[in-house]
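Lecture 7 notes. Example A: sequence first, then its structure tokens.
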Amino acid sequence: MTEPPFDYALALLAAIRDAGLSYPASCFVTGTIDGAAVPCLSAEQQVYFHQGYEPAERDLADMARLREAFGIRTHF
């Protein structure tokens, strides 16, 4: 017997619900990794999450990747 495929979208939504957080439906999008569709947060939502603190090197790298991939403006 094989296991059914893990539903990452449902797991993400359950984790958000369990944490008592709520986000607009528009922040959930579908991306691709190696041609496979995966649930993720929109680039705009990721930029929003990177506000209000002094960024570490990894945060600067994250924002650079978002600017390069999506042509969006970031605050650092």
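Example B, a different protein, same format:
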Amino acid sequence: MYSKSEVLEFVKEEDVKFIKLAFVDVFGKQKNVSITDNELDRAFKTGVAIDASAISPVRVCTAEKCSCAVSVSV
């Protein structure tokens, strides 16, 4: 495992411009997000926020426009 300082040094020495971060969603599928070299130090300190609603198959359903909506009669 590499330390934060070793990673930052490598990125600077090798003139890395983009870093791909991989994670697994709640369904076990690998997803990726990319950050720039300028964002890496902040990512180490505070993490990287993502908009989970933008990752398929997560979606917002409403009764008017979603096939998964259930109609209930009383």
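Note on Example B: The longest helix spans residues 4-13. The CA atoms of residues 53 and 60 lie 8 Å apart.
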